[in-house]
Design goal:
Length: about 290
């Protein structure tokens, strides 16, 4: 029995006038969701702390300025001031006070790729960043494993997978979100755009994150070097890890936008108590 239909056994007291409350998220999903959220923040921030120690990414198996994809640094100006400069595929942008020459996490400014307010720890501390990162990386891996085992046991991992029959519904769903269409296309617990996002995160970017993270670890590299080779070497593994970071941060932005635009209270309640009130944009079945 699916979570939505199964939960219609518990209509709310005001179900005569309002849509029913349904039991939408199991305890495992709710707990892993919030642990994930915490781990994600720490991993992004400590990851950027680590990046600051070597603020270049090269599409190569070794450090190679000729194959530089991203570099964030500082430049001395003729007037004696310092400018932050971000270079992407050879195109340089002035990013003073934001990237390159920015907050040092100690109330001042310094030559630094990412600012103190977005790194963990805020001040420059590579060893501290590594310790936080690796600790929360394992928390995230354990949490992901628990989520999958829970989902497979409840047989509902399949609900979030994008299927060929969902593809024609992607555009109508986007038009609905843009308010260019009155009704969403028929769908189950998750709409086709949600499925596309969850599928790419769970089956592409999260595995890429873990695999490239493992390849970056000197210990794993020593015992499973073919993994690092598969990713194009350690420098390339850094690039993959960073690409996955950008994708997951993008997903996080879209996720928050959707949560805000489809009812903050209802969505938050569903991730705390599990109860969700069905709305106009929700599907009726699975
Ligand atoms: C959402 C999850 C994660 C995010 C956002 C993230 C982000 C980052 C970033 C931005 C870096 C800096 C890359 C560099 O400049 O070298 C980094 C480094 C690293 N990450 Fe992650 N990461 C995540 C998950 C993981 C996981 C799951 C693992 C382990 C399997 C991992 C292992 C590592 C390692 C070993 C390094 C290099 C540490 C070092 O140089 O000492 N990360 N991560």
């Amino acid at each position: 029995m699916d979570a939505v239909a199964g939960a219609e056994r518990m209509p709310s007291a005001v179900s005569q006038t309002r849509e029913p409350l349904v039991y939408r998220h199991s305890l495992t999903v709710r707990v892993t969701h919030w642990v994930f959220a915490l781990a994600f923040f720490v991993l992004v921030m400590s990851g950027l702390q680590i990046f600051n120690a070597s603020p270049n990414l090269d599409a190569s198996d070794k450090s190679d300025p000729a194959r530089r994809v991203l570099s964030i640094g500082a430049q001395q100006l003729p007037d004696g001031k310092t400018a932050g400069v971000t270079t992407i595929f050879g195109h340089a942008f002035t990013t003073t006070h934001v990237l390159g020459y920015t907050s040092d996490g100690m109330s001042g400014e310094a030559e630094r790729a990412f600012p103190g307010w977005i790194t963990w720890p805020g001040y420059q501390d590579l060893a501290g960043g590594r310790r936080w990162h690796l600790f929360f990386a394992w928390i995230m891996i354990l949490c992901g494993t628990a989520y999958f085992i829970g989902g497979i046991t409840r047989k509902d991992v399949g609900l979030i997978v994008l299927r060929p029959s969902d593809v024609p519904k992607l555009l109508p769903m986007q038009l609905y979100y843009l308010r260019l269409r009155r009704e969403p296309p028929p769908h189950g617990k998750y709409n086709p755009l949600q499925k596309a996002a969850y599928t790419s995160v769970l089956f592409v970017f999260a595995p890429l994150m873990v695999i490239s993270g493992l390849a970056l670890s000197p210990g794993v590299d020593a015992i499973a070097h073919p993994l690092t080779t598969l990713l194009g070497g350690r420098q390339f593994a850094r690039l993959w890890h960073f690409v996955a970071t950008v994708a997951l941060v993008g997903f996080f932005g879209i996720h928050i936008t959707l949560v805000l635009s489809t009812g903050v209270f209802n969505n938050l309640r569903s991730m705390v108590t599990g109860e969700y009130r069905l709305g106009a944009h929700d599907g009726n079945g699975v």
